[in-house]
Structure formats: C-alpha cells, structure tokens
Amino acid sequence: MLLVDGKIAEGAAATAYGWVQSIREQKTITFVILMENREPLQLVIKDKRLARKVKVHASIMVKGRVAMTERAPRGYEIHVEEISVLNKPRKIPPFDIMAKEEPSIDVRLDYRPVDLRRPSSMAVFKIRARALQLFREYLVNNGFIEVNTPKIIATASEGGSALFPVMYYDRQAFLAQSPQLYKEELTMAFERVFEIGPIFRAEQSRTMKHLSEATSLDVEAAFLSNEEIMDLIEGMVKHVIKGLNSEPQLFAALKAKPPALPERFPRFTYSEIIEKLKGLGEDIAFGDDLTQKSLEEFGNMAGGFYFITEWPAKLKPFYIMPKENGLTSSFDLMYMGLELASGGQRIHDPVMLRKSIKEHGLPVSSFKFHITPYYYGMPPHGGFGLGVDRFIMVLTDRKNIREVVLYPRDLRRLVP
RNA sequence: GCCCAGGUAGUAUAGAGGCCUAGUAUGCGGCGCUGUCACCGCCGUGACCCGGGUUCAAAUCCCGGCCUGGGCGCCA
Predict the structure, then answer these.
(1) Do A44 and A183 share a structural domain?
(2) How far is CA A19 from the centre of its chain?
(3) Which residue has the closest alpha carbon to B1 C1'?
(4) Which nucleotide is nearest to A384 (CA to C1')?
(5) A81 shares its domain with A128
(6) A301 with A351, same domain?
(7) Tell me: the pLDDT tens digits for A130-179?
(8) Per the omega criterion (within 30 degrees of 0), is the bond before A119 cis?
(9) Structural domain boundaries enclosing A7
(10) What is the DSSP string of A151-190?
C-alpha cells in the first residue's frame, strides 16, 4: 500500500507499507527494495540507525519523501525519514528468495507462501491470473456464459479415470473428474457455456504433468461443428497469447516468453500421425493410443501448437460423435508432446447416446439422469476441456506442473 | 503400479574407503566500503537421513527402513 500526498512528484510526502525483498547496505546509504502491492519500490535510508531496523521479509511501514530518479525501478524512490517494523521474521528463512539457484520444488512447496515471494514464482501466478482473465474475456465476447457445476457427484461421469470417493452423509459419492455431462446438458438452455473449475483424478500418476486436483477450462457450444470448435479454441489461445505478449513486463522475472503463434494451427488426423510414426520405425498400429514417446517424437516434428483429429471411437469417451470407419469428430490440442485440450462434436440423439454408453461397457442405469434431458430436444453441440495448469506451463515455460499451481495435490502431497 | 536415481550446514552443491579438522556458493552474525541494484571485500557461524553390518579405518562399500526426485504406465 502506497499513500502519497497529492501526485507522485519530487518532495511529496509518502507513506508505504510492504515487505522487504532485499537490502543493499553501504557505508552511508542503504537501499531497500520494498515490495508494495506486488511491485518493487526502492527506499533510500541515509540514517544508519533507521537502516538497522530493516530485515529481509519484515513487514514495514515507512514515511518519507518522494525523489524522482531514473535509477529506481519505478522512476521514483522514497527517501525514508521514519520506519515502523510491523512484524519481523522470527526464524531464518528456509531459502534465499533472491538467489539465482532455486531450491528443489519440494522444499519450495513446503514453504509455498514464502516461495511465492520469489520474483519468478510470483510472475508465474501473475501470468496465470492474467491468462484466466483473457480466457474469460474471449469467451464472454463470443457469447458464452460462465457456469458452475457440482463437484460432488453420484457416479463416474465417463468411466476411465479413477475417482476419489467421499462420504456424502450416509451415501457414497465421488469428486467430479470433469463437468463434461453437465456442461453438455446446459447447452440446451444457454447455448454457449463455460466453466473454470477444479477436476479430481485419483490416478496413481507420478509425472510432471499430472495432478490429483487440476483446473479445467470447459467450454461447450450448441450448433458448432468439430471444425468450428477447433477454430474457437485456436482463436481463444491466440487471444490469450497476444494479450500476454502486449504485457512483456509480466515475463520480466522469468527467462521465458509466451510461445510463438503460427498463422494457423496445423491439423493432423490420427491416421496420418500413425502412418508417419510407422514410417519412422515406431512399433505402432492403427487403434493404438499414442504413447508419451510417440507424442514427444511427433511433437518435436510438428513444433508448437497443432491438432490431432479424427480419433478412433475406441480411444474416445462415449459422448463423442462417431463418423464413418470407426472414427470420430474429435480433436486434441497439443503443444509439442503435451496434450493441452481435447474435444469434439458430441452425440445429441438420446438413442444413439444410450447405445454408445453400452458399447463403451458402461452401465446405462448410472447415466439415466444424463440421458433423460436428451429426450426433450438437446441441440447438436460440441466443446472441449482444456487443462489450465498445462497451458500455464506452456506460457511460462515451466517443466513441472507443480510450479504453476499454488498448492498442488499429487500422489504424495496433501499439505500444505 | 513398475523401473531408475538420490538423501552432505537454512538452501544449493563438491567429495566415491585414509588426502575430510568435510570444500564452495548463498543465507545468517560482525566489520569495512564512491547511489546500490543478485552491490562488493574481509572475519565468523553452521552439515554427512535413520538402524544394522563389512573394514585397522566408512560421508564414501553392503543390508534394511524412512523420505524425495525422475522416467514409463495409467489417465478428459
């Protein structure tokens, strides 16, 4: 918090509240970087006795005079006349937030709020917040309404991934792995909906790109074809990246830039990719899922963003619209070897939906609640789910998904 | 779930049977220092994950435990 008498100008009286990021002490003058509202403010202290009161990480209030100077990060600094220490650290900090070498991600997470004072950590979450704002901006501008669907559910929404069981009063319930079914149902009334919220997966995964609790951006729209949905997500990704590119200062503390955008994201069919990988000597056949290794290999060739389209029905969930030859109107949005989003056109006919549930080996009875509204005029629709955390990894060039989540949850970590 | 790797001051690392009284950087404490900006210089402080074993000798080798990291698989 910064309070200035009148405008920020030479000699103006100022009061600043913040926490001390760094101290550079010299014989007669001490420079302090005070973090004030997430931005550095340089303090100049010429009184040795005053300077002694300041410690890194302390919360302080200073009173003084504004001095305009190009040598300070903001173009001005505060010449301090009075300091009150509001609170000071009681222990030696677990790591030096200004050091060039970072502690392991595990130590950082053990002291996450302290770690967030590190400029690069803070930058990641400023970018994340801005990216979410840009997502919303794009979707709202395109006629979407933001919704919230339940996270405590009665049965698996689509089979496949393992669910976390929870007790719901005297019954068994689960944490939602996806808002998939709800968002589809909502197109009936709202035409275009989106939700940004948590998803839960109880997979025994130990990787740099999986979490037990992740954030998903789910979008669903009536009347759009598979191609139009790909256009939509492509437009959305471009909007976010262009928006971030216009604010380079967000990236200053990271040695990274948002990824480059091609004119158009290339679209490869699943079959093309299988053929290509076969040509490279991969042991892979039509109908196989693409392994991590194959995706890395193909991703390196494709470079940047691209789509994989027309997946075999067997590799996609029951609600995806089938095409001829056992293929589907579906896509995955990839960045190199990393899956960012998957989506497609959905089945809107209740009879076909019922059949597809059966064919995927799922109990129709569990989906009765979901099939019911389809009998009352569900519009043709499609959409996608995008892994927000993974997208932020790409934006900030972080290799471990835990870095872009404030308090990540994985196989081992439940605290803090 | 399978496989691999690793636990050395607060943090990040070096050391691979005796050269270790365990080195370096940073932090922390002190002193010095042309408005600094990862300030700089000097001095000090502080560590071998736990339990067994092998050996004249173990941070180092072996066994077990605990903890962690990474890869694969699983996975909207």
Answers:
(1) no
(2) 27
(3) A204
(4) B76
(5) no
(6) yes
(7) 999 999 999 999 999 999 999 999 876 666 678 888 889 998 889 999 99
(8) no
(9) 2-87
(10) SEESS-SSSSS---EEEETTEEEEE-S-SHHHHHHHHHHH
Burial class of A165 by CB neighbour count within 10 A (0 to 12, 13 to 18, 19+): exposed
Question: What CATH number is associated with residue A130?
Answer: 3.30.930.10
Per DSSP, the residues of A359-390 read HTT--GGGGHHHHGGGGGTPPPEEEEEEEHHH
Q: Are A222 and A144 contained in the same domain?
A: yes
Burial class (CB in 10 A: 0-12, 13-18, 19+), A368: exposed
Q: Are residues A120 and A16 in the same domain?
A: no
The alpha carbon of A318 is separated from its chain's Cα centroid by a whole number of angstroms, namely 27
With contact defined as beta carbons under 8 Å apart, do A222 and A187 qualify?
yes
Same domain, A69 and A123: no
Q: In Å, what is the separation between the CA of A95 and the C1' of B40?
A: 22
Distance A31 CA to B47 C1' (A): 33
- Rounded CA–C1' distance between A72 and B75, in angstroms: 49
Nucleotides of B under 7 A from a protein CB: 1-3, 10-13, 26-29, 32-40, 67-76
Longest dimension (CA), chain A: 83
What domain count does chain A have?
2
Give distance CA A26 / C1' B42 (Å): 15
Strand, helix or coil for residue A354: helix
- Nearest nt (C1') from A156 Cα: B76
pLDDT in tens, A177-196: 999 999 999 999 999 999 99
Distance from residue A36's CA to nucleotide B18's C1', rounded to whole Å: 56
Shortest CA to C1' contact from A387: nucleotide: B76
